[in-house]
Amino acid sequence: MIEQRDETSVQEDSIVSIITGLLYPFIIVFGIYIILNGHDTPGGGFQGGAILAVLFIGRYLVAHSDDFDIHRAHNVEKVLLAILILVPVVFVFGSLSRSYPQLNQVYLVFMNLLIGFKVALGLTIVVFRYAFFEDR
Amino acid sequence: MIEVGVVLLMGVFAALTIQSSLLRLSIVYLAVFSLLAAFLYLLYAAPELAIAEAVIGSGLVPLLYLAALKQTRVYTIAVVSEGQRDSITDRVIFEVERSKALEEIKAFFERREFEVQVVFVNVALEEALKQEEYDLVVERDEKGIAVYTDEQSYVMVELELMFQMHGTDAALRFIRYSPGEAV
Questions:
Q1: Within an 8 Å CB–CB cutoff, is residue B31 touching chain A?
Q2: Secondary element (H or E) of residue B148
Q3: Residue B50 belongs to what domain range?
Q4: Does residue B167 share a domain with residue B87?
Q5: Which of B23, B43, B70 is the last residue of a domain?
Q6: Which of A112, A136, B36, B43 has minimal Cβ neighbours within 10 Å of its Cβ?
Q7: Least CB-CB distance to B51: which of A47, A54, A127?
Q8: Distance (Å) from the C-alpha of residue B128 to the closest C-alpha of chain A?
Q9: What global pTM score does this model have?
Q10: Are B52 and B97 in contact (CB under 8 A)?
Q11: Do B146 and B86 belong to one domain?
């Protein structure tokens, strides 16, 4: 008889959350596939990382979760950036690529993985920072 | 040949993005525009770019815009009925929800990008006016609908002006009060 809607029931949408819940595993597999196969098919670290970032951000929009630790993600991203600079320096200037040519493939995949996770974390942090700390 | 069709469609969706009156709809049009752009890159044999465009243009950017839209406020209109408690019946709800005045008030705030929600509350008018969570209090009685407006608020002045200039519902009245005082 009395129409009363509280804020949570207005904002949550069960259809959207169930469908995105079903899609999550496929998006994760697709993103990781694009990162890992980036060196010989279209795609690569940046594109796969962006797909993974979309996953995290979509999860925030659908589930309104605020359990994402931005500071920890920021620290992990800094460590990834350090490794991202160190690995090419060691690999190229240490002339490992010439002495062990069979390592080239491993090097490419490893760099794509690093770039992918760094891009995913970076884009997620940008959007989360905007969503949480911007004035309402 | 197919490129021309895709470019024309992109133009259509670009125009729709600008012309649409709802921001949510604009975001969807923008996502479709980006998807078409990705398809165009694929036609011009640039699959790497196509993947990046598809992911960012129709995944990341719409989500960012949606997160921005979430920051907009929810505007709550509380409807009370004259008389004692428990005077809100199904009949009252039916009448008020179909009244032209409420339609126009809702349209006024939706044009200002508010998310409007209407709640029917079973308390006296004075109590409803004291509640912080109600942005606008509307009282319904036999004569029609009375809108209680905060005299400090310029949005309310605008609303009143709009109804004076081309309001159609004569049963709508505006009553000014200053918060903290008895009505």
A1: no
A2: strand B144-150
A3: 2-70
A4: yes
A5: B70
A6: A136
A7: A47
A8: 14
A9: 0.62
A10: no
A11: yes
Please report, for residues A2, A65, A126, B1, B66, the alpha-carbon distance to residue A119 in angstroms, rounded to integers and kept in the order given: 49, 21, 11, 37, 21
The one-digit pLDDT tens for each residue of chain B (183 residues) are 899 999 999 999 999 999 987 788 899 999 999 999 999 999 999 999 999 999 999 988 998 888 777 766 677 788 887 765 566 777 778 777 777 778 888 888 877 767 788 888 887 777 777 777 777 888 877 777 788 877 777 777 777 777 777 766 556 777 777 665 555
Q: Are B72 and B113 in contact (CB under 8 A)?
A: yes
**Predicted pLDDT at B167:** 63
**Do B65 and B78 share a domain, yes or no?**
no
Q: A42, B56: Cβ pair inside 8 Å? A: no
The shortest CB-CB distance from B117 to any of A5, A47, A60 is to A5
Q: Which residues 79-98 of chain B have a CB within 8 Å of chain A?
A: 88-90, 93
Q: Does any CB of chain B come closer than 8 Å to the CB of residue A42? A: yes
Nearest CA in chain A to B123: A2
Distance CA A100, CA A105 (A): 11
Longest dimension (CA), chain A: 80
